[in-house]
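### Sample
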Amino acid sequence: MAFTPRRLLHGTPRLLNAASAEDACHELFTRFGNSPISTRSQLLDANQLHLLNITLNRTPTTSLPPKDGTPLPPGYHLVYFTPSIQGNELGQDGTDRTVNPMRPFTRRMWAGGELEWSRASGAALRIGQIVQETTKLISAEAKMSKTGAEMLVVGVEKTFENDSGIALTDRRSWIFQKEITTPIPVPPRPMKKPFVDLGTGEGVQYRDFRQSPVSLFRFSALTFNGHKIHFLPEWCREVEGHRDAVVHGPLNLINILNLWRDSRGGIGGGVAPKRVQYRAVSPIYVGEDYRIVLKEDTGGNESQAELWDCFGKVGMKATIEA
């Protein structure tokens, strides 16, 4: 059955007296205040880690799930504590609306954030642990986009606590733009450019990727993420102005962290940085080649990572502190 923009956007009433970005910020703080948005406990089960490793092609199909006590590799917490809401409560674009501002600012994008791991003895997240996740609203600011449109930048903080205390603090920044009422046209595909020749210089490593529809579907399933830009090409092209399905920002972050720990001999999962700060710059699309470049600064305590698409554009930047 063919999809049309009108059908895909069906059920989106126009707002005659829409809230301003300032109003939406005020409403968020009124709704959540200083109280946690949510507090949940969950078992870090081996099967979820095993399926993520298979999705990332890091584990042979014939391998067994990891044993209890196996360290959770950095970034892999993103496939735990997934949204637990029914499908009819999702936004029109398939996103979790738990922290959404009031309409019309319902179009969410993951802009970046910071992860910080505890160095305390026994604090590492491990398979078999019962972990508590606490989510708080930490910021909400009214901003203007490059095109002059109102938007919100919302910050949330998630802490992950085991028997030894807080093991990981995850701060995320989300951009909320106005909902789509008129389909956005797809821009022309840019000309391909060869990746920059990095040579064999010391302290520089890279890894090439191309995500398939299957890998995006599997990552969406593991994260229980219903966002349509990751698996519904019709929605991408006919509504949001993307040329194809968009690779998940968290998936790219995990691959950046995997390259970093592999460079330090941590393939088994026992190596974690002290902190990583990252920022999504532009989308990466399914079926297109891209490269993650890792450069270690002099002294070896800090590394810079950049993700480049095959058109010469940066998709994500990260600073990793050992």
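Residues 249-263 form the longest helix (15 residues). This sample (Thioesterase/thiol ester dehydrase-isomerase) is used throughout the tutorial notebook.
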